[in-house]
Every structure is written in structure tokens, then in C-alpha cells.
Amino acid sequence: TSTPTPTPPPCQEEGAWALACLSGDQRNAAVILRAGALPQLLALSASSSPAVQLQAVWALANLAVDAEVTL
């Protein structure tokens, strides 16, 4: 028998989605990075949930393409 993969809390997907939406704006991206969200987004990108992974990677991509924001 296989062990079922635990379902992540819905708040993980919603939180990553919110950061993905907000990170599309340069000013928000800077605030998100200063707040220390990068390690959490990286962790969420390795989630067992494809939906959480998608939102986290979307946010990371938005942060990565912003040339004005430095890590």
C-alpha cells in the first residue's frame, strides 16, 4: 500500500497566489523581498501540490525578471 500525499493547507496556494500577483509590480517586489519571502517561496516551489508549486514559481519568476530589484 502507498501512503497518500498530505494535502497542503489551502492558505499555501492562496498566499503564493497573492504574492505572485503582487510581485508583478516593481515596488511590491522590493517590499516582498525585503520582508524575507524568498526562502518561503523557494520552499513552496517544492510543495507536493502542483497548484502551490505553480503559484510559488510564478511569484519567483516575477521577482527574477525585475531588473531594479536586487536580492
Structure commentary:
- It contains 4 helices and no strands.
- The chain is an all-alpha fold.
Give a concise summary.
The protein is mostly helical and 71 residues long. The protein has 4 helices and no strands.
Features:
single chain, 71 residues, mainly alpha, 4 helices, 63% helix, elongated
In DSSP terms (H or I, runs of 4 or more residues), the helix count works out at: 4
**Which blocks of ≥5 consecutive residues have pLDDT under 50?**
none
Give me the Rg, rounded: 13 Å
Major β-sheet annotation:
none
The helix/strand order is: HHHH
Strand content: under 5%
**Percentage of helical residues?**
55-70%
Please specify the SSE layout and strand pairing:
Blueprint: H1 10-22, H2 26-34, H3 38-44, H4 50-65
Helix pairs in contact: 1-4, 3-4
